[in-house]
Amino acid sequence: MSKTTANVLLVPGESGWEIWTGQHESGYTLHSATNIAHAGAITSIPAGDITMLFPAKSLTAVPMRVNSEDDALFPDLAALHAERLGLRPDPMAGQLTDVFVIARETENTSLVAVFLRSPADGDLPNRGPKGFDISARAIPMSGDVLAIWQEFGRWVFATYQQGRLVYCQATSVDSDQPDDALVREIRMSLMQLGMQGLEVQPTRILIWSSRENIDCSALSTAFRAQVEVSARPAPVLPAPLSKLLPADVRAARRAAQRRLNLTLAITAVALVYLGVIGWAGYGLWKAKSETDRLVAQTRAAAPDGEAYAEHVAKWSELSHVIDLANSPVDILSRIAACIPDKSGLRLKTADISATEIKLIGEAPQFQTVKTFSLKLSKATDLANFTWQTPEPNQSTRGWEFVFSAEVPKEETPP
Q1: Is the pTM value of this prediction over 0.70?
Q2: What's the pLDDT at 57?
Q3: CATH number for the domain running over 55-116+133-230
Q4: Which residue, 268, 269, 263, is CA-closest to 290?
């Protein structure tokens, strides 16, 4: 009986990449935990097929509802929705998107689309992975849950309905404890999901951490749900695995196949050469001719590396489009921070993209609207927007206002 080859999982851990080994059927055990943040710097990966789980910080999750039950239409519908949000993955950079079903209803399906950033130099291991997925999908889960853990020193959270991933996000909070700042980011994200018709009401809150004495008071007060603290469970590969495949890995696989074909061809030539060497000069000439042809093929394959470098450069020009700082949830959080405390001001509509904002709201007092307008204009984390804040109109319930903003377009030099 042949020995079964172990599978290797690269999992984002609390402070660095973790290496897990095992089999899909029997489960995985922790092989080693590193403090290395770039997978390309890991030098001690065991033998076996590698599956890499991308951390939450390297992707953008976009939940949505579509009026269709046809799985074949989901990628196109997700692409149209992403276009409206300003997410435009480069098709030349590989398969950077995938769509997962949350729930199905009659002529209506809830989905979560994942948009992966093109990995930079050093983000992928030196030995090409056989498959990819995301860390939030590789966790055994059931019920309606809000899960919170740390990846590379930052808190990450994910929401699940009936065990299926709805949304995941890497926060900007790197504190030792899940504090009020983390609660604010989670609540803003859940509010955004509610505006999209995806109500998330977790019945349990799970905190996974290796630290002792985790303070759960901020989460318990904010969500009024049962909070459980434990070590993160062992990963379980989703079935089926995602379709994510960055371009550099795709190119590496093609190059490896070319090298294999070339090696097989050279081996065949060598066998032919050795077999016919006794037949004198004709066999020697034939083998030399074949060898020259294969060397020419090898040289012709050299420009592939330059073409790949050019693709990476073009993709990097679009990196600002998928920066988490430009996500609607992040911008909405910054806007909400400008609302005066206990002022009664509320937003009825918030249309937000990476380059344009339109706010429609009301407040009981005229001065409250003016204070909100002033804070928006002076907010440093909204400084790239130019605001239009006309005078509010008085209504039967107070003062109504319509504010707008946009990122100025750069003028093309003559």
Answers
A1: no
A2: 94
A3: 3.30.420.40
A4: 269
